[in-house]
Amino acid sequence: MALSVGIVGLPNVGKSTLFNALTRAQNAQAANYPFCTIEPNKAVVPVPDARLAALAELVKPQKIVPATVDFYDIAGLVKGASQGEGLGNKFLAHIRETGVILHVVRCFDDPDVVHPMGGIDPIRDIEVVSTELILADLESVRSRIEKTQKKAKGGDKEALAEIALLERVEPHLNSGKPAAVMHLHEEEVKLLKLFHLLSAKPVIYACNVAEGDLATVADNPFVQKVAAFVKEHHDAAYVPISAKIESELVDLSPAEAAEFLKELGVADSGASALIRATYSVLGLITYFTSNEKETRAWTIRRGWKAPQAAGVVHTDFEKGFIKAEVVSCADLAKLGSVHAAREAGKYRLEGRDYTVQDGDLVLFRFHV
Fold this sequence. Notes:
The protein has 14 helices and twelve strands. It is of the alpha/beta class. The longest helix has 32 residues, at 122-153.
């Protein structure tokens, strides 16, 4: 399952610095002037997961394949982007291709780093970017209404359903509210996805704080404002992060990085927290497969049954599904081997109705 995240925000909020840190590669420009990023940089980032390493240690496979997230560093938006200001609609189109929006918000004050709108005001910055996404959606919805009306007049059922929803969405957007907070029925939720609206995408706010503020981030007044805004307006997620610290972790080994974070009074990297938040807002989990050749992590939606999970490995696995041999990684780590897990009754044979759990190790039985 492809998981893509678009990093957006006003110029000079730390987007490209964060992108460099997330990808562990300095392939996004990070300079102190607006519109430094001209094309959306893409990088495939491994999902940090201690369970995968522990499983590989037990099985000793030839290859280890982690789950991955595609991150896109998209140029800084400005007020009027939906009307072509700055670098305009071209970059709004890049956001449309992603599954989650990671909105980097500046929560630090530094006179040496220019802010395009003057002083630091994270709520103003959030509203500027959100407004541009809503305005772009409004234009898209109005265009779609015009194109669909002819079919609807001819009695086309699908077109009639589309028009009915579009005519509800338009005034909602026009009131300044994102599509994500609309109250929709189950069928309308499915239909809305066909419109590919920017403001319908899940949003994670990355509160970029100064290096010295990360350990006491709860006291940061800018972060407090973002937390209150998110809770009141969007019911989205927010993650405090220091792009500067993340960039300093790039050249460190895992052990050195852990020690560095410990000295700062921080338990985990911001990158890991962002990826966990992405999985959470999308309702995703990880399961594993493992043999002598390969130990691999797979990303699926929470609540998927065993045949659906098998289909992520190969469509033939889903079509010819018979049974799934299952043991949790936690039980396997505790007991030390598959044999011991069998002896303890923790290694199970599950059928088509089994709901795969986060951290399951699964071996699929199937026929073609």
